[in-house]
Amino acid sequence: MESWQVQPADPFPFPLPLPTRSPTLLAGRPAMAAMPTPRSFLLLLLLATPFLLLPLAASAAVPTSNPDIDLEYLIKNAGLDDSTPSTPTDDPEDGAPDFPGLDADYDEDEDLFGDDDGPEEDSSHPSAADEAHVLLLTAANFTAVLAARRHVMVEFYAPWCGHCRALAPHYAAAASALAEQGVDVALAKVDATEDHDLAQAHDVQGYPTLLFFIDGVPRDYSGERTKDAIVAWISKKLGPAVQNLTAVDEAEKVVTGDDVAVLAFLDHLSGAHSDELAAASRLEDTISFYQTTSPDVAKLFHIDPEAKRPSIVLLKKEEEKLTVFDGEFRASAIAEFVSANKIPLITTLTQETAPAIFDNPIKKQILLFAVAKESSKFLPIIKETAKSFKGKLLFVFVERDNEEVGEPVANYFGITGQETTVLAYTGNEDAKKFFFSGEISLDTMKEFAQDFLEDKLTPSYKSDPVPESNDEDVKVVVGKSLDQIVLDESKDVLLEVYAPWCGHCQSLEPIYNKLAKYLRGIDSLVIAKMDGTNNEHPRAKPDGFPTILFYPAGKKSFEPITFEGDRTVVEMYKFLKKHAAIPFKLKRPDSSAARTDGAEGEKSSGSNPKDEL
C-alpha cells in the first residue's frame, strides 16, 4: 500500500513502506474488479451475428452494424489475439510503489530499504547446520507435515528477496531454541517461487510471509523478524495465558530478561481478577503477562506491597520504565492499556522495528527526520510530546543520514537535503502526509499533533511540473494536473500509474501506446499515464506498478474501476467498451493506409505484434 516500499524490491514496509501489497494490478482494493467478457460468449456472439443479420438484409430493413466490427478491426490490423497469458506477478521488478505504507498492509516483494542485495554473506546465508531444525516443505509434503504436527510455523520466501535472506539466520536460531526448550512446534519454509500454487492457495502476497498453523488453520505472524521475537510469540501462543510468579528469583529473571512485561498484584491466583487478566493476555500477542500474590515479587516490579489490590504495572527496558494501570479491571481496558504503553515513546526506524510499526493498530504517525548529530536536540522534544498522545499517535525517528533507511524513506516523502523535518502521516488507508513548518518546540509539536488528530491540517502531495505540451496519444498526467485531466466529468479516462524502474511497466509501454493510437480522435476518451514515484493524488493510489484505473465520465465522485485483465490491446479495449459511460467507435483510416501503417510498424519494431502481448 499507497504505502512506503522502496523500489525495486520490497507493501516500507513503513513497506516503512516494504511493498504491499501486492505486485499485481491494484491492491488498493476499494475499486471494483473489471470483469472481461467471457471468451465463450464473445465467440458465440461473433458466430451468431451473420445469421441474425440475414433476415434483416433479405427484407431490406434498416442497415444494422456489427457490434464487434471494431474488435475485428483491431484483431486484423494490429495482429492481435485474445490468447496471451496473464502477466506474471512474481517478478521482483513488478513491485509496489516506494513505501506502500507505514502499516500492516504492506507488500514485501521488493527490498524495503533499496537494493535487494540483503545483508552480508555470513549472516544472510546460514550453513546447513544452522538450519538443522527448519523443515523444507513443498507441495508434495506440505499437507502431510501439517497433519502430523499440531503446531507449525511456515515461512513463504523467495531466494532473491533481501528480507528473506536477512530473516534466515534468525528463523533458524529460533527453530533451534524452541527445539532445545522442547516446545511442541515445527518451523518450516516453502520456496514460493518453486511452489507458486501452494503460496497462492495461502494468499501469499509478499515475501517473507510467516503463517502459524494450529491444527492446520493458519493465522498471520505479527511480530518482529528476530529470533527472540519469534520465540516469544510462539511461546506466548502455546503457553499459559498468564504465568504465576511466586518466588523472588523467578521474578528477577523476568525483570532482567523481558523487554516488556505485565504484572498483576492480586489477592488470589485464581478467580474473577485472574480470569480478566488471562482474557486480556489473549488479546496481546507479543507481551508476557504475570500474576503474583507475593509482596516481595510486587516490590521488584516497583509496586508498593501495601497497595490496594488488584494492581497492574507494565515494565519496559527503556527511559520510561514503569507505567501504572489506573483503569477499570476489565480485559478490554487492560488490553487497551498494554497496547498504548508497550511501545517506546519514539521508535527508531530499522529493518527490525519496521514490522512492529506496520502491524501496530495505531495507524497515524508523527515522523522526525534528522541527521544523527542533530537528533539529540529534537528527540527529547518529540519524546515529551509523545507522552500526551499514548495510544493515539505513533512517533517514529528516521535517521536522515542513514543510507539504508533514511535515504529511501526521505525520497518517498519527497524530502531533500539534510534539514530536520517533522511530518504527520495517515498510513496506508489514504496515505496523506502533512509537513510541519516553524520552530520545533514542545508547544508547537503538541499543537501540530493535536491538529493532526482533529483533521485540521492540509495534506501535501508530490507533483512533477505540468508539461508545457501534451499532444501525444498517451496524455501525461502529474499530481497538479490530475483534477483537470482525469477528473473531467465530460471524459472517460484510462490512467496507468507506473514506475520508470518497473520492468512490467516497460513491457506494457508499447502495448499501451498502441491502444492509445487506435483510440486517438475519440473526443470522449482519454488514455493517460502518471509516474507514480514522483506524483501523488488521493484519487489515484497505486498498490503496485503498473496500476491501471478507469474513471467513467459523469461518475468521478466514485472510486475508479481497476483493470485486472491481461495487459493486451484487445483486453483493454474490451474493458473500455464495457465500462465507458459514453459509447464510442474507432475512427479507422482506410484499409490501404491501415495496412501500410501496420507493415511499417512491424518492420520498425522487428517483431511480431503478438509478441508484445
Overall description:
The chain contains 19 helices and 20 strands. By secondary structure, it is α/β, with parallel strands linked by helices. β17, α17 (503-519) and β18 (525-531) form a beta-alpha-beta unit. α17 packs across α18 (569-579).
Give a nutshell description of this structure.
By secondary structure, the chain is of the alpha/beta class. The chain is built from 19 helices and 20 strands.
Topology:
Layout: H1 39-58, H2 69-77, H3 121-124, E1 134-137, H4 142-148, E2 151-157, H5 162-180, E3 186-191, H6 196-201, E4 209-214, E5 217-220, H7 227-238, E6 243-244, H8 248-257, E7 260-265, H9 272-282, E8 288-292, H10 295-300, E9 311-316, E10 322-324, H11 331-341, E11 347-348, H12 354-359, E12 365-370, H13 372-386, E13 394-399, H14 406-412, E14 421-425, E15 433-435, H15 442-453, E16 475-476, H16 482-485, E17 492-498, H17 503-519, E18 525-531, E19 547-551, E20 561-562, H18 569-579, H19 591-605
Parallel strand pairs: 1-3, 2-3, 6-8, 7-8, 11-13, 12-13, 16-18, 17-18
Antiparallel strand pairs: 2-4, 4-5, 7-9, 9-10, 12-14, 14-15, 17-19, 19-20
Helix pairs in contact: 5-7, 9-11, 13-15, 17-18
Biased composition (Acidic residues): 104-121
GO molecular function, one term: protein disulfide isomerase activity
Protein name: Protein disulfide-isomerase
